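Last lecture ended with a question: if I hand you only a sequence, what can you say about the shape of the protein? Today we answer it with a concrete record. The protein is Glutamate mutase. Below, first the input exactly as provided, then the predicted structure, then a couple of comments.
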Amino acid sequence: MSKSQLRILCPNGHLGFAPTKEGSFRIGAATKPDYYCCDSGSDDIGPAPLGADKCASMYEWQKHDLELMLLAAREQGVPMIVGSAGDTGSNSRVDMYVQIIKDLAKEHNLPKFKLAYFYSEVDKKYLQDKMKKGIRIEGLDGRQDLSINDLEKTDRIVAVAGVHPYIKALQMGADVIIGGRSSDCAVFAAPAIKEGFSEDLAYYLGKVLECASFCAEPYGAKETVIGTITENDVRVTAMHPDQRCTIASVAGHAMYERSNPFYEYVAGGMLDMTNCKYEQYDEKTCRITGSVFVPIEGKVKVKLEGAGKVGEKYIGIAGIRDPYTIENIDKVIEWCKQQVEEKFTGKEYYLDYKIFGKNGVMGDLEPIKEIKSHELCVIVEGVAPTKEMAEEVTLTGTRQIFYARLPEVKGTAGTAAFVVDEVLPATPAYTWTLNHVIPVDDPMELFDVKLIEVGN
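The predicted structure:
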């Protein structure tokens, strides 16, 4: 190790998804961290952005966050790393981020620096050729192995990079790195591993930093935290004056969203947190020891994510205040579905209703008390092969709420008092077609790092 410790600043759990809070960022930047790193993507946003090749976040928000990081890192002369560019890490999103960096460098008259970037998209023919050779592309989370049929239904595929392209870019002398789709923790683990720290602690550092202030309390998103790695431990510190990284907040964050809370699958292996020990290092800092990285045995496997278009989509909105309709909302929805089925019998479509404000129970009170809603909001989602049909399916399914025939109702008295706007066009509907892993001879096989010079 060239350093006894390494400090990495993470300003946002998903760059640009909502703007980074500048106050805590500037507090963190003033401490002069060794790296500025941030993840900018997630499959939590669903398959549509990848399939449609668009962002889930506002352009200005993403530019805002990149600008904060770039100016601080260049002023200090330390590296900046961003992974999964533009929410999905597709090639066009990487190009967009590279252009933003170029534009910011010109706008702020920054001295020359080296910008590295890599793409993550995978061509379908590449996978077809692998499958023809009998190479198994294994399904994850209960999926079947990839079939030619599922591949043909796919519009866009990205491979999920591990630490390797980031380490290579740093070895090439990059000052700024823009990565395609990547494992969240790899963005942070890579510089620590490159600097000589153990994989056991480096991957935990990545795990705890990837969501930024989500590991702090009280809850406050988009605030900056700093992770410190040494030969013996990882320490994470909240930068917001009112936040703290505590044993409870850090351990809770490390173990959320998993069927087995003590194991986290990361690119290239698994992070075993069974023997992690959490200590309160100081008022704002939690210290962690005991994590173990277990590499995959045998051939390296790279995760693939793919999305395919299902159809065009429209959204309808209905607000209901009639008490009797609210009480019988399930019957009303069944009536609506029947009317749509009658009109579109034999045609392919998808219709879904999401009811907000439906009667429920409040279990914390004694005795348990039923909550009676006075108003419902019903979101109607219609999907069909064409925009015209999707609009008609959705409009029919929404307006039939008004016409639902409840046998107890006499005349129009007591029918649903509701408001319907025109149904609204939405992003086409996509589905995940790939959640698989492919064996590769070299972990860099799908990721080609490019280096250019930017600035004046």
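Comments.
1. The mean pLDDT is 92.
2. The radius of gyration is 25 Å.
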